[in-house]
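Researcher: Let's do a round of design. I'm pasting the structure tokens now; please hold your answer until I've finished.
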């Protein structure tokens, strides 16, 4: 049950590295991640980690939905990819 999740690492798709990046961005708990949403959380993380890729965005959305990111719908992935293209740093 999602309510029993108390750490970021307990969420689907969130391992130690991504949890560290989220905490560096000021997102400490699953509840905060859900409140921010995947896009805003990604933007916050991007400030400290400009190398963040679209898969990180997918992972965040999957975590919020409590599913593996591979199970996101095609339309959700398309929307997230469009968002990523708008916010990713240019090289």
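Researcher: That's everything. Go ahead.
Model: Designed sequence:
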């Amino acid at each position: 049950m999602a309510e029993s999740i108390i750490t970021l690492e307990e969420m689907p798709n969130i391992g130690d590295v991504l949890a560290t990046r989220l905490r560096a961005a000021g997102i400490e708990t699953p509840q905060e991640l859900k409140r921010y949403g995947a896009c805003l959380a990604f933007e916050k993380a991007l400030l400290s980690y400009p190398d963040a890729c679209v898969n990180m965005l997918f992972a965040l959305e999957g975590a919020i939905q409590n599913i593996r990111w591979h199970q996101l719908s095609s339309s959700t992935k398309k929307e997230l990819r469009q968002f990523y293209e708008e916010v990713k740093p240019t090289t």
